Amino acid sequence: MTSQTLFYVVAISVIWLLFRPLRNFKLRQALMLLISYLLYASWGLRFLGLLVGSSLLNYVWGVYLRRQPSAARLWGGIFLNIAFLSTFKYLPAISLLLPHTSWSGVFAGIVLPVGISFWTFQALSYLLDVYRGDELQPSLLEFLLYMAFWPTVLSGPICRLPNLLPQFRESPKASGEDVRSGLDRICLGLVMTTLGQALASGVQLGQGLDGAFDRISRGWTGLDVWCMAIGYGFELFLNFAGYSHLVIGAARLFSIRLDENFDRPYLATTPSQFWTRWHMSLSFWIRDYLFLPLVMVRREKWWRNVTLVVSMIVFGLWHKGSVLFVGWGFYQGVLLVLHRQGQQLQRRLASPPPAWIVGPLSWLLTFGAICLGWILFRANDVAQALAMLRAAGTPSAYLSHMLPASLYFLVFACVFGYFGVVGADQLRRKYLGAVELPIEIRCALYSIAFYVGILHMAQTQAFIYFQF
After folding, report:
1. Staple partner for 269: which of 124, 145, 337, 362, CB 3.0–4.6 Å?
2. What are the residue ranges of helices labelled H in 321-404?
3. How many CB atoms lie within 10 A of CB 53?
4. Minimal CA–CA distance to 189: which of 113, 260, 116?
């Protein structure tokens, strides 16, 4: 276990013990903010300074906007946040494209503060909610805590003040159900992130997806490309959804309920359904604060389609300012547009195909299209992405494979294990309902999960979404 991970475990345990006797919510807020800043400072004091600076700026701007809501004041706040985010996230990449000067070297050396995309979007949602007239009047302490809340500040989910503010102002003692649910989610998250790391590193070091993407430069077969695309889709899901379980579970230990971030996305039968189940906090943010305001500008159908594509391009740019992420966002936007056109065509049919045919076929097409798009998300450069897509579209490229058999087996096991677990859980809910495990079995499962998690943390890389 790394020293940073150990610091997190110790700090969270201490604050949980300190929280239980506290009943004054102001003291609870102050203690939570202190521990949030300490944990975030473990990534670097300069990062903490940026977070505090952004928080103070947005709090003052929110007061300024609330006094006289106007489009000019709102756009001023949006511009400041986007400029702040772009300086750290996009300026280094842009500087590499410019002629070499002393300034380009300075810009290229800018380090991305961890979690900046998440807490900047939280600040933007606050300003937009204030402009809309929502009754949000947090104290300075409450707003600082909202921006720095330790479970979510590093990698989301993206929270909204109307959800957290009432909970910050309460002082309930965590119930037995809160503790059980929190530990369940933490254990599930530990197992999922461990499986995600196993996909990345492989059964043997260098034989996982990281090695497949980083060491093979040419000659992929169609089977290899699909193995890498599907495997990376599940690596990303297990890593980020697992991290979301950890965050939601940790917050639940303190009787704070966060919104869900994933809801069985690979069971989606349409692209639009997928994006209501995957990274839900960001998907709904894009929908509420970008897509819906833009789509109201014009009533024509073509404008709605353009807005879908633009929204998904922004979705891609949120992750990283590169051609590949623009292409990934454009691709996802086109999928959504094609789905809408398909729905309209289906309505015009006199006798639509039976559901038992449409359902599985729609799921298969959606699953394949989404997984193919992960190539653009993960490829190291445009040339690699094009080579992989070309191999996937060449029939003769399916006659052999270059990747190790162990990687195929690992991807196969994770995919079918996922669908098996989800299917078994649905059957349990349908026929058995909620099942309370005996305390002995629950403790045994906790022990196994924490043991797996400790082994995982001792050798793992940072969570994938820390880089965004």
Report:
1. 362
2. 323-348, 355-378, 382-392
3. 11
4. 260
